[in-house]
Amino acid sequence: MHLTSPHTLSLTFQPKYSLAMRALHWLVFLGAVVAVAAVEFRDVFPKGSTERAAMMAIHESAGITILVLMLLRLLVRVSQPLPPPPAGDPRWMDRAASAMHFVLYVLMLAMPVLGMLAVAWKGRTIPVYGFQLALPLAINEPYSKLAKEIHETGATFVYIFVGLHAAAALWHQFVLKDRLLRRMI
Length: 185
Ligand code: HEM
Ligand code: HEM
Description:
Keywords: Cell membrane, Electron transport, Heme, Iron, Membrane, Metal-binding, Transmembrane, Transmembrane helix, Transport
Helix content: 55-70%
Structural class: mainly alpha
Subcellular location: Cell membrane
Transmembrane segments: 23-41, 53-76, 96-119, 156-176
CATH architecture: Up-down Bundle
Number of domains: 1
Largest sheet: 2 strands, antiparallel
GO molecular function, one term: metal ion binding
Low-confidence stretches: 1-10
CATH topology: Fumarate Reductase Cytochrome B subunit
Strand order of the largest sheet: 1-2
CATH superfamily: Transmembrane di-heme cytochromes, Chain C
Order of helices and strands: HHHHEEH
CATH class: Mainly Alpha
Membrane topology: Multi-pass membrane protein
Bound molecules: protoporphyrin IX containing FE
Mean pLDDT: 93
């Protein structure tokens, strides 16, 4: 008789996320790489320079793109069934993964909103792909400062949680060798 453990099963077959979920996952990742690279690279240029402003325009355009993609992703996620959790994983691992995914949704939705609020309360328009987006908010310096501070603290959490999430995915792939990445590729 041929015995197949759940782990062996997971080696041979991994149900995938839908094409829409996979595409949105990697587009958001690409957007985050661009947003973070642009804002970190801005310090190369002196304050008040056009290049520095261009870096912020790239940051803000990428950030708003992330917001739109995340809203779309949320819609797709609730409108179709998710693949079952990876076969053979203990329950705590599924729970930890779900909790992490929830935190990532909250972060990637909250970050662009906070960024937009920080800019709008400062009285600035938001550059989005060459257009100027004006939010109907009155200037409020203290609110702008607060939103900016939360946005910057949030950025640290983005680094930590995305780092842990990517490390977990790579650990599954290369240490547990359960082809988890295939679910998202
Ligand atoms: C998921 C999307 C976003 C991520 C991951 C993100 C991340 C970051 C990071 C890492 C920083 C630098 C923090 C620091 O230097 O301490 C930053 C700063 C900033 N971000 Fe974002 N951001 C996002 C979206 C946005 C959006 C949509 C806007 C505005 C429309 C925005 C406006 C700003 C501003 C004004 C700063 C401060 C820049 C400065 O101090 O010169 N961000 N963001
Ligand atoms: C901005 C960075 C990232 C964010 C915000 C993010 C977010 C998420 C979320 C929320 C999920 C759950 C599925 C969903 O509801 O959409 C997920 C799944 C997944 N992510 Fe990411 N991710 C990021 C980067 C990465 C990277 C860099 C890797 C690989 C090294 C990765 C690998 C995976 C895999 C394999 C899954 C499927 C996990 C499963 O089957 O349960 N992600 N990601």
